[in-house]
Amino acid sequence: MTTPVAEAREDRRSGPGRVLLCAVTALVAAAAGVGGTLLYQRISAPDTSGVEAQAAEIAEELRADLRVGLSSGGRSYGGRFTEGTLVAHVEAHGGVLLSSGNERNRGAGDLHTAEVMLGLTPPGTGTVAVTAYPVRCYRYTFGVGAHSVRQSGMPCPARTDGRPGSLAAQMGVLLARQPAGVTAYRPLPTAGHAHTPEGAVDFLKDQRLIAAGDTVTEVSGRPAGPGTYAVALRLNGACHYLRMDSSPTASRRIPLWLAPADEQQPCAAPQAASAATLHGTDPSQQG
User: Fold this and answer.
1) What span, in angstroms and rounded, lies between the C-alpha atoms of 204 and 220?
2) I need a surface site. Which of 73, 81, 122, 214 has the fewest CB within 10 A?
3) CA 25 remoteness from chain centre
């Protein structure tokens, strides 16, 4: 019986008062609706903690690689920095390199860039649920020195082969095509093998990076600096780059790696030569 009386009293109030009451009621309802939506989004949003942690770890590893001179403590973090260094870090964290290149930065010279996709293969730590590793893409920029490394999120691009479907599916196929021996991306010496396409294949066989069931096609190479030879080749249909170096310290470098997604189609020696000398120096030896 109280509600009709309240409504009758409200009817006798002035127009502005009733408008104010309605406005307050609407605001309260709207706030409740927004709050409910935000709460729903928070509950239903994917858990990205695992893949975000992997992205941050890659940035830290790049900083360790790029410490120069005295700040490196005299330690060489893998010798000369190449595209293979990037690929080794990214694949160790469940991802693949999409592209790499250079851009000009005012007052700071060239900056190297790397775009990566993570979440393709969740690391087997068992500490975080697999659902925390949805596919995400990131961009890294770096010069020389640990301070130069920057990480940011980015939208994942479309497929690079023009076919229907997702880029994640394309990259998953590339990873599945890699020979069993390639997955470690370990530093290996290439000395003693001829700097020719034939010598490159002999190196792969001698180091057991390929087995009898693996196919090697489209092998081409060119010099990539004094005593260095770069090779582009397809292993089981996936383009790889190989850096052959006669230097006695070459064993500390990553000689073989999966070419970036945007260079899978050409798979040519000029791109391999650029990738093999991406950084060109051992940062720990710089002052």
Assistant:
1) 14
2) 73
3) 50
Q: Are 73 and 239 in contact (CB under 8 A)?
A: no
Q: Would you say 225 and 244 are in contact if contact means Cβ atoms under 8 Å apart? A: no
pLDDT, one tens digit per residue, over 257-287 is 999 999 999 899 999 998 877 665 666 665 5
Nearest to 185 by CA among 82, 241, 254, 252: 254
Q: Which H or E run contains 149?
A: none
- For the stretch 219-229, what's the b/e string if a residue is b when 16 or more beta carbons lie within 10 angstroms of its beta carbon? bebeebeeebb
Cβ-contact 132, 99 below 8 angstroms: no
Two structure tokens written together for 39:
């709460």
**Residue 31 corresponds to which tokens in the numbers above?**
């706030």
Determine the 3-state secondary structure of 160 from DSSP.
coil
Contact 200, 241 (CB under 8 A): no
DSSP label of 259 = P
**Tokens 């330690």 -> residue:** 75
Residue 104 is which amino acid? Answer: R
Q: In the chain, what is the straight-line distance between the N-terminal and C-terminal CA atoms, in Å? A: 87
> pLDDT tens digit string along 219-266?
999 998 888 899 999 999 999 999 888 776 666 677 889 999 999 998
As a residue count, the chain comes to: 287
- Here the tokens at position 277 are 């000398």
Strands 136-142 and 150-154: antiparallel
In 3D space, the residue among 253, 261, 255 whose CA is nearest the CA of residue 281 turns out to be 253
- The DSSP code sequence of 83-139 is HHHHHHHHHHTT-EEEEEEEEEETTTEEEEEEEEEE-SS--TTSSS-GGG---EEEE
What is the distance between the alpha carbons of residues 220 and 286, in angstroms, rounded to a whole number? 33
